[in-house]
Amino acid sequence: MISTSSALCTRADYTSPQTWSYLGTLLGISLPHVLTNSCRNTPIAGGPHAVVFLSHGFTGASTDYTFLAEDLASRGYVVVAIDHTYEATAVTLPDGRLEKSVLGSHFTNDWHSDPGTLGFAVAVRLADLRFVLDKLTGLNSRPDSGFTGSLDLSHIAIAGHSLGGLTVLRALESEPRFKAGVLLDAVVPPHLAVPLKQPVLNVVVGRDQWNEMDCRLWDALVGPRLAVRLPGAEHIGLSDAVWLLKGKVKTGTTSDTMIAATREYIATFLDSSLRGEAQGLVTGGPRPSYPRAVVATQGQSLCGISSK
Q1: Does 11 fall in a domain?
Q2: By CB count within 10 A, which of 132, 207, 230, 263 is most buried?
Q3: Domains in the chain: how many in total?
């Protein structure tokens, strides 16, 4: 998040040069230099601010959802995008070391995606989340951290894509500090350990009908819930691939419309869940930015069965 005083803005690189170079090596191409819309080392705006965690897809990276992180930061959220080191394809540590995935990578399609490995990866991710949650408490209280008193740690949400979505579900089950969750075309388990009382937004893509997995999850949510289906879009359309590979990722619409719709649904849901604002989303239907969207809200039936 940046303050409103951003006249002197040094735009941040999309990721570290070491990571970017390594990704290019995996892809067999020389990647162009990409800058974000974020400013480096800019003081945080006056707070406190609600916090949103982002958990990337399997062997992804924390920067994979920059289009979403920047939008949420511009709306007053502090966004904590986590690299799940040694699972993420590549992570550059503060001392300059490049740590690569020990589980393969989606870039080379050599990943270890058996159930045992995925279960282990999620368990490690949950430990990562708890570690960062504890660190945020220290940052919020330490006088020299740059975040002193700026974090509203009573209002923390978590969003995740693919395996990051499964991470969200397991985190909501086991970590009470997370007050809301956003699932982005999530891996959904056969069952949840407990019915979830926290508000949950479930965004799915690429199918014309709700499926059995969507329905099973819907009925396991006993708190505020919202489901959004974006027909015609593909899985990676909810990541930065939608603009990094503009025109080559299926969206069911234009890339810009996909980005706008994803941002709008998530931000409005979080405004409602964490801030008590924008209640219109709960009773609203498709947004003007994506008229083909299919929306199910609290109290509606998802799959022709009785709903709460």
Answers
A1: no
A2: 230
A3: 1
Q: How many CA atoms are closer than 13 Å to the CA of 198, on its beta-carbon side? A: 28
283 assigned to some structural domain: yes
Q: Which pLDDT band holds residue 298 (cuts at 50, 70, 90)? A: confident
